[in-house]
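Reopening: 6-carboxy-5,6,7,8-tetrahydropterin synthase still failing for me.
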Amino acid sequence: MMIQKQYKFYAAHRNEELNDKCSNLHGHRYGVTCFFEVERTGSLTTLFADFDDSIEPHLKREYDHAMMIHVKDPLYQTLLRHMKETGETLRLKCFSCPTTVENLAHQLFTEITEMGFRLNRLEIRETDTSVVSYTREDWVNDNRYFASYQIPPSESVS
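Support: Ran it again with your exact input. Result attached.
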């Protein structure tokens, strides 16, 4: 059986590898739809709150109103220097790869799976007309891809 849950968060990012408007710092209202595999164990499979109690605080703490940034983006060092010089704390969600919606899907799939949920599919809406559908098969393939390049896991800086 599948249970579907929807979440949202606001975050800034840029893709420093592109030579178009997306290389500029900008933000999105991301919509995240999770499709969980659950098994009936009686009259009830899972409480919806079981998902919300773990996933909502994680998204708020790690992503909401943060800047997702690739640690190899030159802007990252500039932001670290700015925080050190001014004492200002910026909410940065660091990625070991460019902050594309595809890479965000991989990162979120990993984090939600590590919470112990059986995620079947994840959909991320970046704009009203642009959605990435990311499956467990995509996640397995991406894990192989990232492992072959020995990319370290992302880390969060706040």
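The longest helix spans residues 48-62. If you still see a failure, please send the error message rather than a screenshot.
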